[in-house]
Q: What sequence folds into this?
């Protein structure tokens, strides 16, 4: 095989440490066995950018310790090593993001999780760095990767950041037995620390042990950015004459230090295995270490060395080994006996076996970006994100609709179209609530398996079709009255279409809700995007036919009718498939369904109120250009709501299904809230940086300074409202409605305060932000406390997380 190794440091790097030794131990075997190895690593002072070590081994060095990751990705993506059969990615706290760009079969090596290491090195902000650079990529991008680690302790730590145990192979590190052998002990008691000089290595604890044994000296070998701090510490403790700092040492010096030491010490806060323990063992030198990470596996406590639980115990155990010759010799002999069974041949062969398995798997099911896409498409995050993207895309098309018809109809004509659309938007709230209710009912029926799921949908749609016919019959003779109510007296036929269009929306909403219940998320997302696209196309066709405003609005009705017909066939197939061979019990009628939709109607109406009340107040209190500029900022800020609506299409039915199965559905809520954060936080930062010029470029208004200042505040407020919306969808899935009083109270408070504050756009935005923050905290807290209201059902779970249908 041709093996590509991606690592931050190769074994020649001055700070290679155990990672470098591990790589060399395996790579040297692979090359000796006839494989070809290409290594991509960071450069360092004096190192060649490209080095051919032998016929089967070459090293490419790009960037430094911090820049190696993007530069290695770029160079390899451009074909630096073009013909590798497999890749061996070494993750030392930072990933190479290989699932995003590499199609080569991969094995990912993690010596140990660096989360605590980040905090040790960087303080509290290290938690953020650890999450962004290590935890988040490994948990979500590498969800189907094959991992290898060096101890069971490291495997457990990997599990804590979301990697499944069945993805992980534990492959203990070997030892170059030919390079190590027992030698002559030093004449004076000698402690040894061998490794990198990093803060997380806690070498200060080793100094504590040295102080506990006044007759001893300490050999300190290694380099790192903690050296200056250690030198000051040694001076301050008065240990300069007892500590010999060697810096980076060659293999000959390392062997001499290991042979002469009486005891090898390590006090690190994170070690996956600690290779120096095994190298010391190969020289018959026992080790004393803190019982962290893989050290309880590399040291058999009381037989091959001693473990401690804090720095005081470490000092005491060191004193025991130094002052008890019989104990020291017994531990050293047992350590040497054990290490003879750990060879690099064994380690390297097990890794090759994993490579071969990955090649066979990749050949069977594909790999790289396509495999990642399939994995994401089948995950909660991927399917929810797909629906969010569909709604976002449909709203982008809706903006195009606004721009296009604003130009075609000019100000007076578009004013009439806008009034018609506003009337339709008001009528949309019941349809959205009905969609949520149907999704909840059908997904619960699918999960329960008690009767033919969704059998009542056909009845509900049939009743709504009768309502549609009645709306058409009533609207035609009353078209002038309806036109006067809406404010479009010159377009009575367009006004006559308002109620029938709302009925078509109800029908499509019921169909979409049922498809959500059947987990046909791709079809739901496609219908959302298709509705926006056909609305624009139908409108343009009818406008070109000379129908003006009426034609533009009729396009909405025709798009809804088109989508209702398109999704009806696969929906009825789902219903028929579920009904085969199963008794159909009594289904709730349309009236009962509307009663069940009562709480969703109230909840969504209140959210719509919270989303728009500030616009109404500003229009009344400010008016003119300032009100227009605030409206422009509000439109930009509400983009995140579009994403939340799409995520809600997935969240509600999945929460209903899993709750009905007796499972905790809250992880779906957390994932969708996380997606809101991923989209919302960069959006708010972007608005804060370029708010005013952005509004001017998009909307073309002048005097946008105040609106530009208000935009990031409104963006953050709408992000919080998006979190509230998703929590409401989750609670509706659980048949909870107690949160409604929170929305109602928040709505009243926001209205009263907006009416009473001084007239400044930033002040209005601050009020909206404060109220949305309080509501979001309260509703998310209610969602956190709400778990499983029903006992687990004795029915089989649908296969996998993808359930019945293929989706995003």
A:
């Amino acid at each position: 095989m041709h093996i590509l190794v991606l690592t931050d440091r190769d074994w020649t790097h001055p700070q290679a440490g155990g990672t470098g030794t591990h790589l060399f131990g395996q790579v040297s075997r692979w090359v000796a066995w006839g494989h070809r190895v290409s290594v991509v690593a960071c450069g360092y002072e004096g190192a060649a950018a490209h080095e051919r070590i032998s016929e089967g081994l070459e090293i490419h060095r790009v960037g430094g310790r911090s820049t190696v990751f993007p530069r290695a990705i770029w160079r390899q993506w451009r074909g630096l090593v073009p013909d590798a059969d497999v890749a061996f990615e070494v993750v030392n706290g930072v990933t190479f993001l290989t699932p995003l760009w590499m199609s080569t079969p991969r094995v990912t090596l993690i010596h140990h999780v660096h989360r605590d290491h980040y905090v040790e090195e960087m303080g509290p902000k290290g938690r953020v760095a650890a999450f962004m650079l290590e935890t988040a990529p490994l948990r979500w991008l590498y969800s189907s990767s094959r991992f290898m680690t060096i101890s069971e302790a490291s495997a457990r730590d990997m599990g804590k950041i979301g990697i499944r145990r069945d993805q992980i192979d534990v492959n203990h590190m070997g030892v170059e037995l030919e390079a190590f052998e027992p030698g002559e002990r030093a004449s004076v008691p000698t402690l040894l620390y061998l490794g990198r000089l990093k803060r997380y290595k806690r070498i200060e604890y080793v100094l504590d042990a040295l102080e506990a044994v006044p007759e001893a000296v300490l050999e300190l070998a290694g380099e790192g950015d903690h050296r200056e701090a250690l030198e000051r510490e040694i001076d301050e403790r008065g240990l300069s004459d007892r500590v010999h700092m060697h810096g980076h040492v060659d293999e000959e010096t390392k062997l001499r230090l290991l042979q002469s030491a009486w005891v090898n010490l390590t006090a690190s806060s994170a070690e996956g295995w600690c290779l120096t323990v095994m190298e010391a063992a190969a020289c018959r030198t026992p080790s004393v270490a803190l019982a962290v990470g893989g050290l309880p596996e590399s040291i058999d406590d009381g037989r091959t060395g001693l473990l401690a639980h804090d720095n005081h115990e470490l000092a005491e155990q060191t004193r025991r080994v130094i002052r008890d010759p019989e104990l020291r010799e017994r531990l050293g002999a047992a350590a040497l006996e054990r290490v003879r069974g750990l060879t690099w041949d064994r380690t390297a062969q097990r890794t090759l076996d994993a490579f071969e398995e990955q090649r066979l798997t990749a050949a069977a099911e594909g790999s790289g970006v396509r495999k990642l896409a399939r994995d994401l498409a089948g995950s909660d995050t991927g399917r929810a994100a797909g629906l969010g993207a569909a709604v976002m895309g449909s709203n982008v098309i809706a903006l195009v609709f606004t721009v296009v018809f604003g130009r075609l109809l000019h100000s007076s004509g578009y004013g009439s179209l806008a009034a018609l659309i506003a009337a339709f938007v008001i009528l949309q709230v019941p349809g959205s609530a009905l969609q949520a209710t149907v999704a909840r009912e059908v997904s619960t029926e699918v999960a329960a398996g008690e009767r033919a799921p969704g059998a009542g949908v056909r009845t509900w749609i049939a009743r709504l079709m009768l309502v549609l016919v009645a709306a058409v019959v009533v609207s035609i003779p009353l078209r002038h009255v309806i036109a006067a109510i809406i404010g479009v007296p010159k377009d009575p036929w367009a006004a006559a279409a308002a109620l029938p269009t709302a009925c078509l929306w109800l029908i499509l909403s019921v169909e979409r809700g049922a498809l959500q219940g059947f987990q046909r998320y791709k079809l739901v997302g496609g219908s959302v995007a298709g509705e926006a696209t056909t609305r624009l196309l139908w409108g343009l066709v009818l406008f070109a036919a000379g129908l003006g405003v009426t034609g533009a609005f009729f396009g909405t009705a025709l798009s809804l009718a088109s989508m209702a017909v398109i999704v009806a066939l696969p929906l009825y197939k789902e219903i028929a498939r579920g009904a085969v061979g199963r008794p159909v019990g009594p289904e709730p009628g349309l009236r009962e369904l509307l009663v069940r939709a009562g709480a969703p109607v109230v909840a969504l109406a209140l959210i719509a109120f919270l989303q728009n009340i500030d616009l109404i107040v500003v229009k009344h209190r400010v008016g003119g250009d300032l009100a227009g500029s605030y409206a422009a900022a509000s439109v930009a800020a509400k983009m995140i709501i579009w994403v939340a609506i799409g995520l809600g299409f997935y969240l509600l039915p999945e929460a209903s299904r899993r709750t009905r199965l007796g499972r905790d559905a809250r992880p779906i809520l957390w994932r969708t809230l996380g997606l809101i954060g991923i989209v919302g936080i960069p959006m708010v930062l972007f608005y804060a940086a370029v708010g005013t010029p952005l509004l001017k470029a998009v909307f073309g208004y002048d005097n946008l300074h105040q609106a530009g200042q208000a935009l990031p505040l409104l963006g953050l407020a709408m992000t919080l409202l998006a979190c509230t919306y998703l929590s409401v969808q989750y609670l509706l899935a659980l048949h909870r409605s107690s949160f409604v009083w929170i929305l109602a109270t928040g709505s009243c408070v926001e209205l009263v305060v907006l009416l009473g504050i001084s007239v400044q756009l930033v002040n209005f935005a601050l009020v909206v932000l404060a109220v949305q923050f309080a509501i979001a905290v309260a509703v998310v807290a209610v969602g956190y406390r709400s778990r499983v209201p029903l006992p687990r059902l004795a029915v089989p779970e649908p296969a996998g997380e993808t359930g019945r249908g293929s989706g995003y």
User: Anything to note?
Assistant: Residues 385 and 434 are 23 Å apart (CA to CA). Residues 580-585, 789-808 have pLDDT under 50 and may be disordered.
